[in-house]
Amino acid sequence: MNSDYLALYDNQSKYADELNQNLSACKTELLKSFCTKNSELISVCAPGRVNLIGEHIDYNDGFVLPMAIPLYTVIVGKLKPFDDNNNKNTVCRVKSLEASLGDKNYVEIDLNNLQKKDKNQNWANYIIGVVANFEGTVEPFDCVIKSNVPLGSGLSSSAALEVAMYTFLENLTNQFSSKENKALRCQKAEHEYASVPCGIMDQFISSMGKENNTLLIDCRSYESKLFALNDPDISVLVVNSNVKHQLEGSEYSSRRKQCEDVARIIGKKSLRDATLQDLQNNEKKIDRESYKRAKHAITEIERTLNASKALSGNDMTTFGQLMNQSHDSLRFFFYNVFFILIFRRIEMILMFPVTSLTLWLKFLGTLMEYWEAE
């Protein structure tokens, strides 16, 4: 890997510089588009995330172990109590600097009519959902949004947008929620307005993440615990598989339903309460695909807890082995597909000797469009 790529991971100042550049771009566009003068501007950001272990577990009441990453959604805006004719205002104006949106990058939101937008402006539904679920009273505003969290990469760009918008509203209105309640309200916004039945992990880590730490989240009790990850000899390498990730267009909902159906069949509230013996005892009542996905969920919960224990004891060898087991479980049990491209890449990289560095590979992108097993 050449020095340019290494700098992306090792030069922390790069992230700060890019964050400041994006904040500056938002401020410039706000002044240009909304003619803001002599107004107090509010600037906020929220990070994306990568989940180290605990895949497809948050909706099974299990444990997940994500970490925030230094890629952010930033928002700059201001109150807009009166419209351009000096009448009392009820409309929020929002502009995104995401180039792929083209001329669909601007939306107006009537606070008296928080209806979902059509598919051409689906990005705005995440914002409308947060406005609708904000714990306090929302005041009219203008704002500009920019993000360097890659869209569709599995880095939770949607949660970063939701948490950034909620944080913006908090500072706009001086009405603040607990971090847990903020995450839960952002999750509800995604359920109701983006029609994505996501678990709680993404919003929690975006709200509660801390530099040089992972966050173990109990997805049943919502309790969480930080685990330090600041050993200079340890690197987490996040590699984009370049396969697009889109929850609402994937089999996410069906996979979730299969896990819930299995839990019901074996008489448990969720797979968090199930054992492999419970699953085996009811094997004849469960279709093959659902059985495999439930097996992954049950074993993944245990792996995640063991991974947190390994981190606590700074046992990186065991942690890496548990990550490999997690990938194998997803490959053979959960998706019923062969991750030919993804796993061949992993195998190729793991062929290179690693001496002073413990390397964890986290490949991103959707877990949906792969090759069906023959």
Give the ordered list of helices and strands. Answer: HHEEEEHEHHHEEEHHHHEHEE
First-residue to last-residue Cα separation:
35 Å
Regions with little confidence, pLDDT below 50 for 5+ residues: 1-11, 336-345, 348-361, 363-374
Report the count of strand segments: 11
Strand content: 15-25%
Structural class: alpha+beta
Main sheet characteristics: 7 strands, mixed
Helix tally equals 11
The level of helicity is 40-55%
Question: What would the average pLDDT be, to the nearest integer?
Answer: 83
General form: globular
User: Taking Cα atoms only, what radius of gyration do you get, to the nearest Å?
Assistant: 22 Å
What are the salient characteristics of this protein?
single chain, 374 residues, two-stranded parallel ribbon, 11 helices, disordered C terminus
Q: How would you describe this protein?
A:
With 374 residues, this protein is α+β, with helices and mostly antiparallel strands. The protein is built from eleven helices and eleven strands. It has helices at 3-10, 12-34, 122-133, 157-173, 179-193, 201-208, 252-265, 276-281, 288-312, 316-334, 340-350; strands at 42-53, 63-79, 91-96, 106-110, 141-147, 213-218, 224-228, 234-240, 337-338, 358-364, 371-372. Strand 6 (213-218) and strand 7 (224-228) form a beta hairpin. Helix 4 packs across helix 6 (201-208).
